[in-house]
UniProtKB/TrEMBL annotation:
It comes from the Eukaryota. Pfam families: SSL_N, Str_synth. SUPFAM superfamilies: Calcium-dependent phosphotriesterase. Gene3D superfamilies: TolB, C-terminal domain (2.120.10.30). This is Strictosidine synthase conserved region domain-containing protein.
Amino acid sequence: MSKSTHSSSPDSPTPSTTTRSWHLGLVLSAVITVVIALLLVHFDTYDPAPYSSDELAKKPVFEVPRANPLVLHGSEKIGEGRLLGPEDILYDPKLGVIYTGCSDGWIKRVSMNHDSVVEDWVNTGGRPLGLALGHSGEVYVADALKGILKITKNGEIEALTDEAEGVKFGTTDAVVVAKSGILYFTDASWKYDLPNFALDLFEGRPYGRLMSYDPSTSKTKVIARDLYYANGVELSPEQDFLIFCETPMMRCSRYYIQGEKEGLIDIFIDRLPGMPDNIRYDGEGHYWIATPTEHTYEWELARKYPYIRKFLGILEKYLRRPSVEKNSGTVVVDLDGNVVARYYDPELKLVTTGIKIKEHLYLANLVQPFIIRLNLTQYPATAPSTTK
Ligand SMILES: *[C@@H]1O[C@H](CO)[C@@H](O)[C@H](O)[C@H]1NC(C)=O
């Protein structure tokens, strides 16, 4: 407080007194807020777990041969205002449409011609996330609220499964259909529902499962349990294995469906430069793995110290989700698990699917009201020397 503030004429009200009491009030409310926050953090039962030192020792690999770090430049928005939180994208080449599941329960169909006409197709009454195309044109849905659904070509909904081994799914997340007709799918967390996904990530305990469903027997089988936010799943081109992503671990693993290693699980790619969400094979030798956020220094700290994650969790529970996302986009990985390219943008938020269809990259996301399309011929990822 400077002396000059009350050197004004004697008959004016004394600003120093009002300023001082205003400051006092501010300090007092700040102290009260901090005390309440500390009490909340102390007494709340939310109790994040430490990560293993092996896990903490891993450093993400940011150097990639090629990158497009400004994906929004030159991109178009598709279905703006009509596609709310389009989490996944499924391409049906026969119909020439893409399907996407929205936060209002609608599975929308978007024509792939120049007009990109959006059609309300089916409303699941839940929150459709992962989508897969069946062998007769039916669509399988991993619905966060309703489990695995089948939607016939005519739009009739059939609920297939929503629990395994007596444990109900909490956030059914992604699904694929093998040639055999068997569905493989993930439940990200039996403990937390989709609106609370961040609490799962901050807690740092494995509540996810990889499962299969056989339509010929109606049996649901648990393939792997204790997974860290089991997210995207995709089949290899030969269908000898499938790949599933564990978001907070920044890794994707292989589960062998057939052959010598049948039934085994190993790591396909570890130390991704961001947290993986959905994974899509492009039919041309590359997997496209969406990253809702890049790996950040802040998250590295939070991973190290459970108390920071507890604090973030309390913020999330009682105020709002702290924004920790950065440089969202997609990484491109070859058949051997090497990252060969990255597409991202500082302005992109919570990208959940990146998929290459013909000449374009399509990016879906959890929260924004559109899909992004980028002409890859025009705006390719380039070697670092030329991106700067
Ligand atoms: C993509 O960009 C290339 C190069 O500018 C152009 O030749 C092509 O027509 C574009 N593709 C589409 C589908 O617009």
